[in-house]
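Priority: medium. Attachment 1 of 2:
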């Protein structure tokens, strides 16, 4: 008897598998190119490149990471001298890129864009726009 529902046909499974593969490809590429940074840490640098002075909570909200994970990642980035935290009051810190952090974010960006181009190989621009639109609709339906 064959199962009419195969996990491989599940939209959620396909999205999850693809996200894991994309993260893994970025992780391998960063390592191969000699960058001592994880995809998640790079996500923080990229976010701060666009909008500095965010709080830890704001970073977590944008990147869908909980407070302990963001705190650990910020600690690592601070030890690497890629970010600095400045107190805005007794309990809140604004996070900024250091010059080294900005340089690293700029150095990695073409590598990330090249990988993104490779992962989207064979897709037309309108197909990529449709894919992004559909995924955003699915996300909105969940929330």
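Attachment 2 of 2:
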């Amino acid at each position: 008897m064959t199962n009419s529902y195969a996990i491989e046909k599940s939209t959620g499974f396909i999205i999850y598998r693809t996200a894991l593969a994309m993260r893994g490809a970025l992780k391998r590429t960063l390592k191969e190119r000699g960058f001592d940074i994880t995809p998640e840490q790079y996500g923080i640098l990229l976010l701060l490149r666009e909008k500095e002075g965010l709080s830890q909570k704001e970073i977590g909200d944008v990147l869908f990471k909980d407070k302990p994970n963001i705190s650990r990642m910020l600690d690592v980035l601070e030890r690497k001298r890629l970010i600095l935290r400045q107190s805005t009051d007794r309990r809140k810190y604004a996070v900024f890129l250091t010059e080294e952090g900005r340089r690293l974010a700029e150095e990695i960006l073409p590598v990330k864009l090249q990988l993104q181009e490779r992962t989207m190989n064979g897709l037309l621009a309108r197909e990529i726009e449709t894919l992004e639109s559909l995924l955003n609709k699915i996300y909105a339906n969940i929330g």
